Amino acid sequence: MLGAAAQSFSLFGYKATTMEQVAKIANVGKGTIYTFFDTKEQLFDEILHGVISEMKTIIEREVDHRKPFFDNLFRVLDSLLEFRGEHELLIKLSQEVRDFGTPQSQEAMSRVEGVILGYMEKEVRFAVEQHEIRECDPSVVAFLMLKMYVALTSEWNKQHQETLTKAEIRQHFRLFLEEGLSVK
Amino acid sequence: MLGAAAQSFSLFGYKATTMEQVAKIANVGKGTIYTFFDTKEQLFDEILHGVISEMKTIIEREVDHRKPFFDNLFRVLDSLLEFRGEHELLIKLSQEVRDFGTPQSQEAMSRVEGVILGYMEKEVRFAVEQHEIRECDPSVVAFLMLKMYVALTSEWNKQHQETLTKAEIRQHFRLFLEEGLSVK
DNA sequence: CTTATGACTGAAATTGAAAATTGGTCAGTT
DNA sequence: AACTGACCAATTTTCAATTTCAGTCATAAG
Q1: Could you read off the pLDDT of A96-128 as tens digits, one per residue?
Q2: Annotated DNA-binding ranges (chains A, B) (predicted)?
Q3: Would A180 disulfide with which of A164, B79, B158, B179, CB 3.0-4.6 Å?
Q4: Total domain count, chain B
């Protein structure tokens, strides 16, 4: 039932999956869905919540506070990028945002982003407390880090043919965030 | 004539200005316009070229190679942001990109961005040669700088109510680009 | 009784054909 | 020679008819 819905949302996006469709895949009548979920939106939220939980699990698995802050940061961002690239639902939803701007898919993607920002903010705050990085406003710094990461990993490719390698991305990230541009 | 067109494009955007409209403002017949310009698009390009020239003038006026790289950078970016905020045409065009995605306005905005990137890339390259900043890939660094600047000056405000002050923006910019996050 | 169902409903989206708009032309006017 | 606006083809807009779909509920099944 939840599986059927997940399958349909992943295959067709939010807008293009119908409750009839979900019912057929789940082998139940349409009315039955409404004994478990109040609305299409609530059903969708349930699925999304699952995906977000997976993301949180990934984050927890990758973070190791015995390792340096930047190591953790790279590892988590790489894993999340890969996760996103593999998960049909997230791919479909970001297409839907681009092509139709469906409010529900926009909201979903911004919740996903919120989770990532939340993790990053927490880690930045922790690193500051550990005096591993300078004093700073964690929410602004997390926001900027994510923007930079997205700029390097996807926006660059839209205007330039040769995509940056993982090593180049990491190198630029380090140059900016860790060391700064000024000469020693 | 060019003035009439500029006025109309600034007031209504690319899509919503008609050649009839321009002709009326300019007090000429529609046909007359076509003795000076081949198409609507070419007329528009002429106007845009003027705006871009103004931008280049601003850049040249603000850059002073006797001053430090980051001083120049801030001064130019601030001036350009202000210029953009005052120029009806650029405001209208970016609205049009957001609301309709008109190809001509998209192309126009990306040409404007290209000019800014071009300037930044040149300045980064110069600063590297002067050993004022580290060795780096000027095009990637310019790209990231602009992304960061836009993130701080406009994208932050979309998700957070309290806009960052000019001082905060400058401070974060410095933190990231100049000094880096790692403790000394 | 409880649980499941699919025909049904009103609201919203889609379609398509007619009407209006508009970039560009050119025969005629000045 | 310079200018003009009626005109044309193509695109865009309009809007009513049709279709789709989330959610309901009377009925059926267990």
Answers
A1: 999 999 999 999 999 999 999 999 999 999 999
A2: 18-37
A3: B179
A4: 1
- How far is it, in rounded angstroms, from Cα B144 to Cα A147? 9
Q: What is the pLDDT of residues B140-169, one digit of tens each?
A: 999 999 999 999 999 999 989 998 988 899
Residue B150 lies in a domain: yes
* Domain assignment of residue A184, yes or no: no
The CA–CA distances, whole Å, from B184 to A19, A133, A141 equal 58, 9, 18
Which residues constitute the domain of residue B101? Answer: 2-179
Give domain status of residue A11, yes or no: yes
- Residues of chain A neighbouring B152 (CB-CB closer than 8 A): 140, 144
Neighbours of B141 (CB within 10 A): 23
One-letter identity of residue A80? L
Residue identified by tokens 């992304």 is B147
Q: Is residue A10, in this structure, part of any structural domain at all?
A: yes
Q: Which residues touch strand C (CB under 7 A)?
A: A 23, 28-32, 34-35; B 16-20, 30-31, 34, 38-41
In window 15-44 of A, residues with CB < 7 A from nucleic chain D are 16-20, 30-31, 34, 39-41
